[in-house]
Amino acid sequence: MSSPSDFFEYVQDQLSSWNHIDKKRMFGVLGLYRDSLMFGIIAKDIVYLKVDDSNIDKYIDAGSTSLKVFKNNSEVPSYYKLPEEVLENAESFIEWAQESYAIQVKRNS
Question: Which residues contact 73 (CB under 8 A, 6 or more apart)?
Fold first, then answer.
């Protein structure tokens, strides 16, 4: 397993042609931010992106599951696991990240 900073660097590299990504540690995970809006989470070298009615079906269709946190595996239904094949394809990753970021922009406007 890579170190958390190595994995974040990989994620940042995959998204580099989209925009600069910042991180913030919180509750044992890393929040992924663009323009001060959190659109994703890294937990145990897994990327989870923000979902709502506009994009959740593509995650479900890809077999993704929601983020589970803490020892009791509490579900966080607004963040779903990014499929591995999307993570590995920078162009696809950017597309999915843009959708998650747009949710936060809309929510905060």
Answer: none
